[in-house]
Amino acid sequence: MKINFNLIIASTFVLTSLTILSSCTTTIEKSPRSQAIIKMKRATDHHSYSKPEVAVVKHLDWSAKVDFDKRIISATASYSIKCSDTAREIIFDIRELDIENITVDGKDATYTIGKEQEFIGSPLKVAITPESNKVSITYKTQPGADAFLWVEGEKPFLFTQSQAILARTWIPCQDSPGIRFTYNASVDVPQGLMALMSAVNPTEKTENGHYDFVMDQPIPSYLLALAVGDVEFRSVGEHTGVYATPDLIDAAEYEFAEMEDLLVAAENLYGKYAWERYDLLVLPAAFPFGGMENPRLTFATPTIIAGDRSLVSLVAHELAHSWSGNLVTNSTWDDFWLNEGFTVYFEQRIMESVYGRDISEMLASLSFKGLVNEVRDIMDQNPNDTHLRLHLQGRNPDDGMTAIAYDKGYLFLRMIEETVGRSKFDSFISKYFSKHAFTVMDTDNFIEYLENNLLQDSTLRKQVNLTAWIDGAGLPDNCPVIKSKRITAVDEAVEKWAKGDINTNSLGWEKWLYQERYRFLKNIPSSVSLEQLEELNSTFNILNTGNNEVLFAWLEQAIKKNHTASYPRLEEFLVNVGRRKFLTPLYKAMLDTDQKEMALHIYSLARPNYHSVATGTMDELLGV
After folding, report:
1. For tag attachment on the chain, is the N or C end more exposed, with fewer CB atoms within 10 Å?
2. φ, ψ for residue 103 (rounded to 5)?
3. Residue 564: pLDDT above 50?
């Protein structure tokens, strides 16, 4: 997932630690045709009631009907399970589900639903024996289930967002990233709409609205995904394609035409793509993130359609997740950096391979500068939240989705690369992905693997200083400092322009890439007058740009300078775009400039269009 937003205030609930993996040897599927025996130490997931060492799901058969009028899904989830010799119950995570009936091996079962806890939901405990093989749960979702967004219109649209712990709001499951299972699905939707999942997908609509899906590679529950809408498919390469609504399909086909090149570059770096196809679905603008790495089918925001293929780094990021996150998955959300730090590193390497180091370093420089600011802000609140190993017990795992896991994780891996050499580090990562394919990894086990396979030399270990990175606050002394000549030139330009030493017409805006324009706008000092800002807009027509990253940076400055001519566009943007990366800074800017009344007015119009992931953050920020 590609995101970047301010730290969210920790929630107050507490959940007793639950064991995710037993210390015994565990058989883990390495590919659909081969298995490997991997010994794992215990890892603890604080966000799931499941006890997989007692009884664990292995395969799901899901039969469902999507009802847009009632905004519910009626379904039966049938799990093949594996039990220990002492198993007396299997525990599922549920929230916002109406359980109607449960059977075990075809016979009515005894079950209980425990007390609900905030964010976590309730434990669904089903009585079994060590010989039990299948548990079937018939249920309905609720209209307000947090994973869903039902988008109204002439042609309605539904999409899910399961990460981090929202899968349990639309399917009873053992909702921990440390538990993987395969699945088949049978889904009925209204005629004229297409259903898509994180599985083998159709490329054309069926006449009766019935769709069957197969995912024969094991995935964790947070990668379960469903979308239903009036979409079309276009192939853009041998293994790649795009889905979008009819009004966006031509633009999407053009924008993502280089997806196959990105896929080839990724394979050349770290080995064969394991999921057969890499397709992308353009969702409604209400999608709360830039992208979500659902296997075989990335969910993406339409805000990355700029008309010039300038925002493809997000595609590179979600593609990289096919290795880091989907292939080798963080065992718990405390290990989130193992998903995102690796992915940002991989993303940068893909961008360098396809577009050159000049471009990749510019992107890395912007991320570095943003990380420095975020580390400063987090250190003022809770220095422990700047550790790579997160501390999310008793908190919503969303709290860990900051630049720490993403960009500090990236810098940690980049530092190791620069310490041991790129060739040696590339060999290490390739073997890491290959050896641990279709398994999970936690921080302690990664450290052990790293020390045994790359940092055997004590001098190297001292140089790397794992403790400072993994469990230390802030950025360690050996943190790489990333500089881009192009970004440095932009910073010099904005400083001179702000002082009046450079005319607006002489900035070179027309020749800049979007990253340079974005950096210029984000770096405008408070000393700049409203008149200077208006001159900038009138000269380059920024308010009407088709690049949403640049537009976002402009709107943030417009709020700070009370550029009222931008306010209609601001309202339109916030009502129609639900990407949390944009929402949080813009609403916060209104609060910081004593324009709360405007913020609340816009939010009252926009909130019905946002996903629960976004409204949870905005409600807290705005105090509603």
Report:
1. C
2. -125, 150
3. yes
The pLDDT of residue 41 is 58
Residues 287/578, Cβ–Cβ less than 8 Å = yes
Task: Specify whether the CB–CB gap between 179 and 220 falls below 8 A.
Answer: yes
Closest-CA residue to 193 (of 156, 224, 219): 156
CB count within 10 Å of CB 88 equals 14
Q: Which member of 89, 255, 258, 318 is catalytic?
A: 318
Cα–Cα nearest to 462, from 475, 473, 478, 449: 478
Q: Residue 550's CB: how many other CB atoms inside 10 A? A: 23
Is 318 an active-site residue? yes
295: left (phi over 0), alpha (psi -120 to 50) or beta: beta
Tens-digit pLDDT profile for residues 367-406: 998 999 999 999 999 999 999 999 999 999 988 889 999 9
Q: What mean pLDDT is reported for the chain?
A: 91
Bridge partner residues of 180 (DSSP) = 220
Q: What is the pLDDT of residue 154?
A: 82
* Helix, strand, coil % in the chain, rounded to nearest 5: 40, 20, 35
Q: With contact defined as beta carbons under 8 Å apart, do 232 and 202 qualify?
A: no
Whether 5 shows a pLDDT value over 50: the answer reads no
CA dist 168 and 176 (Å) reads 10
Structure tokens at 559: 């709020």
Give Cα separations from 496 to 124, 269, 471, 490, 509 (angstroms): 63, 41, 41, 10, 14
The angle subtended at Cα 503 by Cα 497 and Cα 504, nearest 5°, is 80
Catalytic residue among 222, 270, 278, 406: 406
Backbone φ, ψ for residue 342 (5° rounding): -60, -40
Answer yes or no: pTM beyond 0.85.
Answer: yes
Rg (CA), the chain: 24
**Residue (of 442, 252, 268) closest to 346 by Cα position:** 268
Q: Which two tokens stand for residue 147?
A: 């994973």
DSSP 447-497: HHHHHHHT--SHHHHHHH-HHHHHS-SS--TT------HHHHHHHHHHHHH
167 exposure class (CB count in 10 Å sphere: 0-12, 13-18, 19+) = buried
- Indicate if 406 belongs to the active site: yes
